[in-house]
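Reviewers of the previous submission asked for a worked example of the structure-prediction workflow described in the proposal, so we include one complete record here. The input consisted solely of the amino acid sequence. No template or homolog information was supplied to the procedure at any stage.
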Amino acid sequence: MLRWTVIFIVLAIIAGIFGFGGIAVGAASIAKVLFFIFLVLFVISLISGRTKV
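From that input alone, the workflow returned the following structure tokens.
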């Protein structure tokens, strides 16, 4: 999922450079949502992955 976030960020940067404002905003917002989903899943996996010995 982090890979998709990076892809959308790069797409947003390239679209912003070439002047495609709507595409850049859309790609950046998708990247932001995917990044927050990644963070939530990462924290959940850290919490649930701990086992007592």
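The chain has a mean pLDDT of 84. We consider this example representative of the routine output the project will generate in years two and three.
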